[in-house]
Structure formats: C-alpha cells, structure tokens
Amino acid sequence: MSGSIMNRSQSGTTATIANAGTVSNAVDFSYSDGGGFAVPAAFTGTAMTFTVCNTRAGTFQQLMNATGSAAVSVTVAAGKSYPLPIELEAWPYFQFVSGTAEGGARTIIVVRKG
Fold it and tell me: How confident is the model at residue 11, as a pLDDT?
C-alpha cells in the first residue's frame, strides 16, 4: 500500500486590535483553505467573534452560524492557539472582534493554509 504526502503552503500575517478597542484590522483570507490564530499572552477577552466582507474597505458584517441564530464564536484564553472557524472560508476578508475592550494594542498571529 502506498501513500502520498500532500504539501500545503502556509503563510502568516497579523491582525491588531488597538488599545481600548475590540475590532482588528481586516485580514486577507483570499485563496486560503482554513488556518489558525494565536492569541497573545496579554489578551483580555475570553471570546472572539468575527466580521466579514467581500472587499477590504467595504462594510463588515457580523458572521453568523448557518441558521442565523448566533454569531460564530470561539472561546479563547490568553497565550493559546485555535483553528479559524470553517465559516470564514466563504469570505475573502474578516476581522477579529474581542468580547472585551483590550487593555493595550494586541497582535494576533494568523496562519493561513492553501
């Protein structure tokens, strides 16, 4: 029995939530097949939701689950890493939204595969 190894290219970027802010700059997720993100050690929030848009400078809207009953959310802890929700794959641009105003500028590391 033979197997094959799939090579995936990965690229990284960052998103920053400003001091006293809750929303990051836009992340370009074009041509990505999923990925993950790392929350910095000083992160204040405990939940992350997302806004999405079809253009970088457009009007971002809250990303909802398939039934429209709740925002797509990830429970987070400072200094931990998480997969990006699969629902983001339909959108070329997204923003992170912290559930709490951050007590300083926070840089989130984003890894995209595709």
Answer: 66
